[in-house]
Amino acid sequence: MGGRITPIDTAYFKGERSGGFSVIGTAVQRSDARGHVTGRTVFFEDLTPPGLTHVKIHRSTRHHARIDRVDVSGALQVPGVLRVITHRDVPNNWYVVLRLIGVGPDDEPVLAEDRVLYRGEPIVAVVAETEEAAREGAARVVVDYTDLPAVLDVEEALAEGAPIIKQAGTNHFVYEGHPCRRIRFGDVERGFAQADRIIEGRYSSSPIEHAPTEPTGCLVVPQGDGRLRIHSNTQAAFFTLDNTALILGVPPTSLRVVGGTVGGGFGGKVDVIVEPLACLAALLTGRPAKYVYSRAEEMQVSSTRAAERIHIKDGVMRDGRIVARQVTLYVDAGAYSRHSPYGTTKAAAHMPGPYTIPNVHVDCYCVYTNRTPSSAMRGFGVTIGDFALESQMDHVARELGLDPLRLRLTNAYRDGDMKAHRKIASGTALVEVIQSAAALVGHELPPEYLAMSSAERAEG
Known about the structure:
five-stranded mixed beta sheet, seven-stranded mixed beta sheet, alpha+beta, 460 residues
C-alpha cells in the first residue's frame, strides 16, 4: 500500500508504555474493503422483495407557516397510489432522538400537524406501487398555508422581540434553567483588568452537507410472525430500533434492524427519519415498503453539520500568557433539536481549548431557527470550535508579534492542570506534539521551548 507514514517517535513517554504499537503507524486494511471494491457488499437498495411499495413525501414549501388545509384527494386519484399517511396515522407523532438518554422535550413531529418550521419539512407520505406513482401522488397533495415570520439567523432568533418559533416558548434549548450551557472558572473580568491587551475575534461557519454516496433510506419487510425487518443504512441501529418502536407504539422486540452497510455516513445517518414512516407504510399495506431520499432531498432536508458563530475575547500579557478568555458560541440547531443540545454541551466542555487559562467564561447557546435541522457530523460540537480557537491563537500571535507555536507552548495545558470545566488534565502530550510538528516542518524552537514537557510545568 502506498503513502507516507511518519515514523513514530518512541523517545517520548518511554517509561509510560507497557508494549509496542501494533496498529498505530501501520497501514491497516478495512475489514469491508474487499467486499466494497468487488461489488459483493449488499446494500439495502440491492434488495427487491416481492410486492415492494415505495414511499415519497410531500414537503413544506415555506420556511415558517401555519397549515390551514391539507387536501390529499388528488394523490389518491393517481393510479398505483395505495395510501396516504398524515400525522393522524402516526401513533406517537412527537419525538426527539435523544430522549433515549433523557434529553427532552419531544419537539419534532414525524409529519407536520398545524405548522411547518422549515422548508422541506415532511407533511404527507404517499405509498404507491411504483416510485413514479408515489412521486406523482406526493406532487398532487395540496397544502394551504398562512405564512409566519421566519428567523434564519442565530443572533436574530435570540434578540428581544424575535418571533418565537418553538412550542416550548423559547428559541433556545434550556439547560437546567439557563438559556445556554455555561462554564465559569475564575474571574474573567478581573483577568481582563490585569491583562496588557484585550484581543477579540469573531468566527463563523455555514452548514455542511454530508453528501453520502448512498442517500439516507431503508426498506421494511413484514415477517410472518408479525415482526418488521428493517434493512437500513443507519449509523445507529439501536437508536433506530428504540425510537421507531416508541413512535409506532410497539415493543422493540417487534422490530429487527439489519444494518452494517452505511453507504457513506459521517454522523448524518444517526437521526431516525425514514424508518418510522417506512414501517408505518408496511403496517398499513401489509407489504414491503422502501423510503429513500432522492439526491435533491439528501441535499435539502438531511441533517447538516450545524452552522456556528463564535465570539472570543482574550485578555493577554505581552509575553503571550492568556490570563482570561470569554467565549460566546451559537449553534444553529435549525428547526428541531435532533443531536444539537448534546453537541452544544460538548462545545462548552471543549472551551477554552487545550490551554490552561486561569479565568474562563463560556456561554454556548443551542438556537432554533427556521432552517433545516442540523445534527451530528464528525466531531460535532468541537470541530468548528477548534477552527475558531486556533484561528484566535494565530490572531493573538500576530497582534503580539510572537511565534504562534511558542504562544501555544506557553499556554498548552500540562498533566495535572485543572480544566475550566473542572476536570484534571491527564495524558495531554500537547507540548510534545507541537515540538514534533515543529521539527517535521523545520520550524526551529529555542532551547527553553524544546525543554518544555507535558508532564510538568518547570518553566513556571
